[in-house]
Automatic annotation (TrEMBL):
It comes from the Bacteria. This is ABC transporter ATP-binding protein. GO terms for molecular function: ATP binding; ATP hydrolysis activity. The lineage of its organism: Bacteria, Bacillati, Bacillota, Clostridia, Eubacteriales. Residues 2-237 form the ABC transporter domain. Pfam families: ABC_tran. Keywords: ATP-binding, Nucleotide-binding, Transport. PROSITE patterns: ABC_TRANSPORTER_1, ABC_TRANSPORTER_2. SMART domains: AAA. SUPFAM superfamilies: P-loop containing nucleoside triphosphate hydrolases.
Length: 258
């Protein structure tokens, strides 16, 4: 569905991404792990066609993102910002309806079909009851679900999520990640950036670990999440404990162990 090959990008003289390659199929949730400033957002901006001065290639459904116009790309890839994303005082329904503009064009008002798509998106995330509420008055967890609903209304098969659980309480983190995982189960190809190795192990199908702008490891969580990886990424010594037949792994900082 999405393929990134030998992607390198510099801001001016400053190299940020170096030779990044990975591919992602439908029905897969990929977590991108890496320390602050490693280039996760830069990778997303390249995939979204916002940065064009890269070398290598990025294709979605076999089409190079370089060759796709903004609308064509929006039909294939939806971006979900963090829940503190600023917004005017729109109702939840209108926010979600905005996701349909890639289908109608910005100047054509949404019709019945688009309204149906917005309702469906709210239903799929179980937040129909919020439809008439004002977006700015929602909690962070509710906002994140609204932003995901807006992306679903866009009807793009690839979802790019910028730290979907940032600023959320523990319960909302689990609720949002459970929904995200379920969306992958419905066939979306999802890439999320995250700073939480344990959650990426528990919820995702693949992990892409980045260091110094390069891919340090890429594969199934069981192959990727080790104490060595956590040390290489974050410079901290942890023990990685396996729980429940290795369905979960917990990172325990060595400094606080007896
Ligand atoms: N517009 C820009 N011009 C110059 N340098 C930039 C620009 N945007 C980001 N950078 C630099 O590129 C590097 C990668 O930034 P990026 O935002 O992609 O990292 P990130 O992995 O998303 O970080 P975080 O986890 O903190 O969100 C950083 O060193 C950053 O300072």
């Amino acid at each position: 569905m999405i393929e990134v090959q030998n992607l390198s990008f510099s801001y001016g003289e400053r190299p940020v991404l170096r030779d990044v390659s990975f591919a992602l199929d439908r029905g897969t949730l990929l977590s991108v792990l890496g320390p602050n400033g490693v280039g996760k957002s830069t990778l997303f901006r390249c995939i979204l066609g916002l940065l064009k001065g890269y070398t290598g290639s990025i294709t979605v459904d076999g089409r190079s993102v370089r060759d796709l116009g903004a609308r064509e790309l929006a039909k294939r890839v939806a971006y979900i910002p963090q829940s503190n994303y600023p917004a005017f005082n729109y109702s939840v329904f209108d926010m979600v309806l905005m996701g349909t503009t890639s289908q109608t064009g910005a100047l054509t008002p949404p019709g019945k079909k688009e309204e149906r798509a917005a309702h469906e998106a709210l239903e799929r995330l179980g937040i129909e009851a919020l439809a008439q509420r004002s977006y700015t008055q929602l909690s962070g967890g509710e906002r994140q679900l609204v932003l995901i609903a807006r992306a679903l209304a866009q009807r793009s098969p690839v979802l790019l999520m910028d730290e979907p659980t940032a600023n959320l309480d523990y319960g909302n983190q689990l609720r949002v990640l459970t929904k995200v995982r379920a969306l992958a189960g419905e066939g979306y190809a999802i890439i999320q950036s995250t700073h939480n190795p344990e959650q990426s192990y528990l919820f995702s199908h693949r992990i892409l670990a980045m260091r110094d702008g390069q891919v340090l490891a890429h594969g199934a969580p069981r192959e990727v999440l080790t104490a060595g990886l956590v040390r290489s990424l974050y410079g901290v010594d942890v023990e990685v404990e396996s729980l429940r037949g290795d369905q979960m792994r917990v990172c325990i900082p060595k400094d606080i162990l007896e």
